Amino acid sequence: MSGSYRPIVASGDLLLYARLCGRDRLLIALNLGSEPTAVTFPSDKLTGRLLVSSYGDREDETVAGTINLRANEGAIAELSEQAILP
Question: 12 near 20, Cβ under 8 Å?
Answer without folding.
Answer: no
